[in-house]
Amino acid sequence: MKATQVNIIVDVKQALSRQSGDALVSELGGLQGVSRAWVSPRTPRMVLVDFDAEQTDTQHILRTVVHRGFDARLVGM
């Protein structure tokens, strides 16, 4: 079965510190279907996420970020 890879950007209102960014990336990376998550090196309030749309969805990713206490919104890629 071919995976359906999707790329999104999560725009976090607050700039992420190294520690909070690492913790968020680790949590997102642990979600089923997420193949990669990282904080943009150019814009530290942008989190980029690659995932399989057949295993998870954008709302689950956004809820994970918001659950950590961040004010965030989705931006498509």
Number of strands: 4
**How do the helices and strands follow one another from N- to C-terminus?**
EHEEHE
Residue-averaged pLDDT? 92
Q: Percent helix among the residues?
A: 25-40%
Query: What would the principal axes of the Cα set say about the shape?
Result: globular
CATH architecture: 2-Layer Sandwich
The assigned structural class equals: alpha+beta
Distance between the termini: 24 Å
How would a textbook summarize the main sheet?
4 strands, antiparallel
Briefly note the CATH topology name.
Alpha-Beta Plaits
Q: Helical stretch count?
A: 2
Query: In the residues, how many domains can be counted?
Result: 1
Rounded to the nearest angstrom, the radius of gyration is 12 Å
Q: Which parts are unreliable, with pLDDT below 50 for 5 consecutive residues or more?
A: none
For the biggest β-sheet, the strand order reads 2-3-1-4
Name of the level-1 CATH class:
Alpha Beta
How much β-strand is present in the residues?
A: 25-35%
